[in-house]
Amino acid sequence: MSYYDIDSILTDAEKIPCTFQLDIPDLGYLDNNPSHTLKSGTRIQLPLWLAEMLAIANTGSLDEQAKSFVTFDLPSALGNDVVQALKADPRAVPLRDQSPHFYGLATHMMDLSEEQELAAVLRKTFVTRASEIALHARKVGGANQHGAKGQADEASNLGVGGAGEEFLRGLDEWERKLFRKAHDGTRAGKEWMDSVKKR
Amino acid sequence: MPMYGDLGNKLVQHAKRTQNLTHLPPYQAELVRSVAREVRDLDKDVASMLEPFQGSFDPSAHQAMACTLLVNHLSMRRNKRCLLAYHRTRTDKLEELVWSGYDVLDLSAQQTAGEEDYVRQYGDLLAAYKGQWTDIDLTGSLEPPRDLFIDVRVLKDAGEIQTEYGAINLTKNSQFYVRQGDVERLIAQGYLQKLA
After folding, report:
1. Within the 9-28 window of chain A, which residues sit less than 8 Å (CB to CB) from chain B?
2. A50 interface with B at CB cutoff 8 Å
3. What SS3 class is residue A37?
4. B190 — alpha (psi -120 to 50), left (phi > 0) or beta?
5. Residue A159 carries which DSSP code?
6. In this complex, is the C-beta atom of B67 within 8 Å of any C-beta atom belonging to chain A?
7. Does A192 touch chain B (CB under 8 A)?
């Protein structure tokens, strides 16, 4: 997660629901209403890069209940519906439909709030899905062995068919990288073995 | 609703696409200018907001303004990150192309004058680095050669080259049986085609 990391920057653009805690005259444009005061209690979807700092910074008042500018809730991608579905079967949820950077968003939210149960569900989700991803990645690479050689063969096998295709389409960015690595690794291993046999 | 940072995001999406390409797409001059302009506008806003305070702004006394200032500051910071990441992605790509032996002139259509300069200087650096090991071609192929000599066809005129066995004049469409090591660069650059 470096400063220059493109995926990390795109993750920071994911929006989460925020509630403003005070009236701010100049920020009406955030609520699509320039020239009007942004009222305390207004709920707006703000990108992470903005919401995070606004939630952490406090208003600087010296009294006891110094509050932050905004409070935030978990985004719908981590809402109850999704969590229940993940509990039932992590493999059946197309994470990509929730957010292309699902895990990035989730880990970011975990940093900001302490939701032990949610963290446990997410961990289990990743582990379960990771082994499924590895399985598919091997299958795709393995199909090459039986078929003749050539790109066309490989491409036609990328689909893996029905359920697998559905699952792979639902991978988030991180999982896609994992899949690509597992797939390339399997293939490189096989290529190396073949070249050893030839000598 | 357009918001501060939206343009920067567009730029980063371009960068994301660039990462997956084998060539360098055109420079998004207009977008870069717009993002830079956004930063200048934000900076102007901040300056005019703080002006009446003469350097003695107290955030706890003006909470709403403190929040506006923070939002402005964060937007500028976000834009800066987007701009830097976009350019870094491009320079990474250029370095990659230099290492793989692309002809600098082939690239120049897509890049800015600054990037062209970057490629030239990076190329010089790489050449100086490679110069330390004259008996190894650091940018050569990692595939061990199967044959010492290969058949090649000339795709573009490449002039005369010197080999251990004398000079060869590479004119278009001619065919030669040459030592692989002598022509590897020319194959990578697309002057020659290796024949099976």
Report:
1. 9-10, 12-13, 22-27
2. yes
3. coil
4. left
5. T
6. yes
7. no
For an interface test with A, the pick among B67, B73, B86 (most A C-beta atoms closer than 10 Å) comes out as: B67
The answer to whether the CB atoms of B64 and A30 lie below 8 A apart is no
pTM above 0.80, yes or no: no
Buried/exposed B145-159: b ≥16 CB within 10 Å, e otherwise: eeeeebebebeeebe
Name the band, by pLDDT with cuts 50, 70 and 90, for residue B104: low
Q: Where are the beta strands (DSSP E) in chain A?
A: 15-20, 43-47, 70-72
d(CA A122, CA A104): 11
User: What is the complex's ipTM, to 2 decimals?
Assistant: 0.78
The DSSP annotation for A64-95 comes to: TT--BSEEE---GGGSHHHHHHHHH-GGGS-H
- Go through the domains of chain A in sequence order and give each one's CATH number: 1-73 (1.20.58.2050), 76-199 (1.20.58.2050)
pLDDT tens over chain A, length 199 residues: 689 999 999 999 999 999 998 888 888 888 877 778 888 888 999 999 999 998 887 655 555 456 788 888 899 999 999 999 999 999 999 999 999 999 999 998 998 888 889 999 999 999 999 999 998 888 865 544 444 344 444 444 444 456 678 888 899 999 999 999 999 999 999 888 988 877 6
User: Within 10 Å of residue A77's Cβ, how many Cβ atoms?
Assistant: 19
The CA distances from residue B136 to A16, B130, B131, in Å, are 54, 8, 9
- Give the nearest partner residue to B81 out of A3, A25, A47, using CB atoms: A3
- Contact at CB, B66 and A60, closer than 8 angstroms: yes
CB contact A89 to B (< 8 Å)? no
B63 contacts in A (CB within 8 Å)? 22, 59-61
Asked whether the beta carbons of residue B85 and residue A61 sit closer than 8 angstroms, the reply is no
